[in-house]
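DM between two lab members

TW: hey, do you still have the ABC transporter substrate-binding protein entry open?
JB: yeah, one sec
JB: this one, 516 aa:
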Amino acid sequence: MRRIARRSLAAHRLTRLACLIAGLATLPALAPAFAQQEPQRGGTLRIAQGSLRTADPHRHTGDSPVQQVYAEALTSISHDGSVKPMLAERVEVSPDGLAYTFHLRRGVRFHNGREMTSADVVANVERVRDRVQGGWLTTAMRGLRAVEAPDPHTVRFVLAEPFAPFTNLLSELWILAPETEGWATTINRPIGTGPFRFAEYRPNIRFVGEANRDYWQAGLPRLDAVEFDIRQVADRSLALRAGDIHVARIPDDAVETVRRDPNLRVTFYGDTEWCAVSFNNRSPRGPFADLRVRRAIAHAFDKEAFMQTVGNYVVGNQMAAPGSYHWDEAMERADPYRQPDLARTRALLAEAGVVPARTPLRIVSWQNDYSLFTAQTMRGLGFNVEHIALDDIGMQTRLTRYDWDLTPVCSGPRADIYLRFVRLMSEGPRPQMWGGIQDARLDQLISQAVTTVDDAARRRRYLEAWQHVMDSHQVLVLGHRRSPIGVRAEVRDFQPGFTVSPHRVDGGVAYTWLAR
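TW: and the structure you got?
JB:
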């Protein structure tokens, strides 16, 4: 492998990321037959992008794409990652960062025909804060001192202390009609405000949304319906090429084949997934609680080779992608694991008194190439590896048993850096992917970051928190990737957003139409 000089490392990775972004932004021209057509109405968009673990939007723990076509929030994450008003027309923030006043759009109606008011927003916030355990935003909402509805079109939030990502996080607090059945327990047929009504849901098979003809954005949606295939299928590219699906997440090794098809194009989410190997931090087994052993394992990983199995990648050592605001060049330069060092691995294992051939090591993972690479790397060190590769539901469930040693994961785009950090907190959502960290000092550092109003100071605190993670060897980051989406040529005005949401205030499936 070609080695990169230390002084040029950051520049090399920034250049690589810039080339990656430029390459992803380059899309083939539309077929001439479609080029001048006006948007057409009707048709069903068949899409295989994202999952729907629960029909109850308040109970999701990170898998939120599909529900965003029927439920909307006060704010929305734009295609460029900025936050914009959605069900709110505008927001005012007090100078001390403690009070947020949202002015609601008038004429927004729930799918049952009733107009949305500020009292509905308050009811949704209180449900997330008081009734939902382990939800994506439950911890954040507990920082509220008060949520008030001074008039039918105004909502005022009062925070106990500043919380910098508040408006970004509200993009994932979806507003439903409180009269929705199951409000006090679990909702199965939500009544939202989105461009598509909740019509049919068959868990792990499909979701169908029918057009909301009373949608508050005039002239939208253009489609009659959207149908999400939510089965767990490894490769959607054949169905895409056959025309069985219009839009699909495709595997990285299918990108070039899809690009060569004149009836297809490839596009990407705006944000990256970050890829890492997590240690079992909740209940480490045998020698794997020993920092020397964790360092030894980190030295054994070839980051470049690991990320090649992922595709569309850039190597890194932080949860923020190289070149982004929360990334730090000095921290990147100081990475002791940027190149594999098997001699150092062997020395550390010997120092810890670990004989790999006598040491069982259990890996729980998804069924993918980078998980196989992880298992092979550990076998190469001589460990007695047991590799349990499962589908997504099985993997997530098995991780909660904390009877494993390593798990390789890639985690998708988020509305704010906090939504990556929160999963490392002691009471964060779905902590098992990061080894169930319970670290009071890390909790304190992350809490200090989110309560810091000044952007530069908040960035420094986040970096301090990430340095703590690296020093503790709780999670080893290997790099970042962008997820490819295949789109058929007849699909128009569809572009993935910054996050995995298929719907946002300035784009997505509400704007999409099918050329015929």
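TW: got it. The domain at 273-481 is CATH 3.10.105.10 (Dipeptide-binding Protein; domain 3). The CA atoms of residues 323 and 478 lie 16 Å apart.
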